[in-house]
Amino acid sequence: GGDEFEAIFEVRYDETGRLVAGGEVLYGRLNWRGRAKEKGYYRFALEEGGRGDYFDASGESARRLLMKTPIDGAR
Predict the structure, then answer these.
(1) Secondary structure of 5-72 in the HEC alphabet?
(2) What is the DSSP letter of 73?
(3) Chain segment 4-34, per-residue pLDDT in tens
(4) pLDDT of residue 46
(5) What's the predicted TM-score (pTM) here?
(6) Which pLDDT score is estimated for 73?
(7) Range 1-8 contact pairs with CB under 8 angstroms and sequence separation of 24 or more
(8) Residue 39 β-bridge partners
(9) Is the pLDDT of residue 69 over 60?
(10) CATH architecture for the domain at 4-66
(11) Which residues sit opposite 22 in a β-bridge?
């Protein structure tokens, strides 16, 4: 318990200023209680609208971390 997640994401508004859609997650931060480590990941795509992936500040992909299964037997 006590783990934290933070996300920064795009939002789209119409010409009147009303929120019309959410967009891509641009940044995510994970903080595990009981561990000394906190990790932040940034979205990177080679072209606008292209498929992106998430990397930490040193360029390490988040894919392996996010694919971990938190519950025994969940696969």
Answers:
(1) EEEEEEEEECCCCCEEEEEEEEEEEEECCCCCCEEEEEEECCCCCCCCEEECCCCCECHHHHCCCCCC
(2) T
(3) 888 888 899 999 999 999 888 888 887 877 6
(4) 72
(5) 0.57
(6) 59
(7) 1/33, 2/33, 2/34, 3/30, 3/31, 3/32, 3/33, 4/29, 4/30, 4/31, 4/33, 5/29, 5/30, 5/31, 6/31
(8) 30
(9) no
(10) Roll (3.10)
(11) 11
Q: CB atoms < 10 A from the CB of 54, how many?
A: 19
CA distance 47 to 69: 31
Average pLDDT over every residue of 37-56: 76
| Neighbouring C-beta atoms of residue 61, cutoff 10 Å | 13
Look at the alpha carbons of 62, 28, 58, 35 in this order and tell me if their dihedral is positive or negative: negative
